[in-house]
Amino acid sequence: MNSMSNWLYQKWFSYIHSNYLVYNTSWEDAAIDRELLHLNNNSSVLMITSAGCNALAYLLDGPRRIDGIDVNYRQNALVDLKIKLIRYRDYTALSNLFLTGRHPEYLAIYSRVRPYLEAKSRFFWDRYIRYFSPGGRGLYYNGTAGTFALILNAILKLKGLKPNVSRLLHTASRSEREQIFRSTQGKLWSGLSQYLWKWDGLLSLAGIPASQAEAVEDLNAFMQGTIYQLFVEQNPAQNHYWRVYLEGKYSTDCCPQYLQKENFAVLRKNIGRLSLKSSNLLQHLSHTETKYSHFILLDHMDWMAETEPALLAKQWKLILTHALPGATILFRSAYPDLSFLPPFVFGEVNFTNAKNINIQQQDRVGTYTATWLGVVQ
């Protein structure tokens, strides 16, 4: 980008993330996380909230505390609604809203839980509870990530590929899925759409900064490989991460762990261990004395690597100051290696790429180059 284009892009990206709910569901595989983290009742976790699906999943392992932080209060408002439904209502109320993202009785459900919400959460949901209206798009096609998903679905429909995508999702036979994929990929990656979907302005809706997209050498080739892995090699029928955006809803047999009925009792028992704060990582670590055994940073550092290296270094110093001996640090990245990290980090943290322990291949999201697990020495 030239300087003017970059300035306009930064303004656009900042506007989106300062004014809208971005993530309506978490985009990191919680099953992978739980396998890597080994949480237990001694664990103290600091994580970026996002949509909160994974924070709730971690509660199933009984950690002592989870502190969820997010600079966008709208993300915390989404999680706060889930928390209060779990704590004060029942599984039916939770699933009525969040399984399909819409329900005829959404206003009645909201009115019963509204008094328990934090003030900022009430402010947000009083305006946007309509996301759950049965006559609207539904939660999972709202928020900017939901809008991005709608645009991708429109491209698939325009190309006449929606029936093939549905068959891919629901075909048990791997060989049949491969045939469908081979007959579809040429049309999928042709024409204007092969450029439109990866336009920086559009990727901003999905929370993908330009620097992160540029870290992948060939986005089209990367995504072709990802889609083959997820829709052919794996069984996509159980991939709720992609199905929710392709179908607009979850189902009882394909949904995040916090929406599985058998987990509700444990969630209710442990829900008081999850706290939320609208803050960024630097602010939180600068004003807390808490030490943590686990840090879950999503792809947060990709956002800072190119534009804010000094702040990234400061953040790592604070992380290490607040890390218990042997603390675990989990994050994703689009970068092929860790050369973007401050050099001093490597003297204090040993990193393992999940690819090297045969876990990455099970990942049902697939849009990150690497999943990294660091252990503080």
Q: How would you portray this structure in words?
A:
The chain is of the alpha/beta class and 377 residues long. A 7-stranded mixed sheet has the order 3-2-1-4-5-7-6. Helix 2 crosses helix 3, helix 4 crosses helix 7 and helix 9 runs antiparallel to helix 10. The two termini are 40 Å apart.
Describe the SSE topology.
Layout: H1 3-19, H2 30-37, E1 44-48, H3 53-59, E2 65-69, H4 73-88, H5 91-98, H6 106-113, H7 119-128, H8 143-158, H9 162-170, H10 174-188, H11 193-196, H12 200-203, H13 210-214, H14 219-233, H15 240-247, H16 264-270, E3 274-277, H17 281-286, E4 292-296, H18 300-305, H19 309-321, E5 323-333, E6 349-353, E7 370-376
Parallel strand pairs: 1-2, 1-4, 2-3, 4-5
Antiparallel strand pairs: 5-7, 6-7
Helix pairs in contact: 2-3, 4-7, 9-10, 10-14
In short:
It contains 19 helices and 7 strands. The protein is α/β, with parallel strands linked by helices and 377 residues long. A 7-stranded mixed sheet has the order 3-2-1-4-5-7-6.
Name a few traits of the molecule.
19 helices, Rossmann fold, single chain, 377 residues, alpha/beta, 7-stranded mixed sheet
CATH superfamily of the domain at 3-74 and 261-376: Vaccinia Virus protein VP39
Order of helical and strand elements: HHEHEHHHHHHHHHHHHHEHEHHEEE
Under CATH, the topology of the domain at 3-74 and 261-376 can be stated as: Rossmann fold
Beta-strand segment tally = 7
Estimate the strand proportion: 5-15%
Helix content: 40-55%
The main sheet comes to: 7 strands, mixed
What number is the mean pLDDT?
94
Shape assignment: globular
Weakly predicted, low-confidence segments: none
Can you tell me the CATH class of the domain at 3-74 and 261-376? Alpha Beta
Number of helices: 19
Distance between the termini: 40 Å
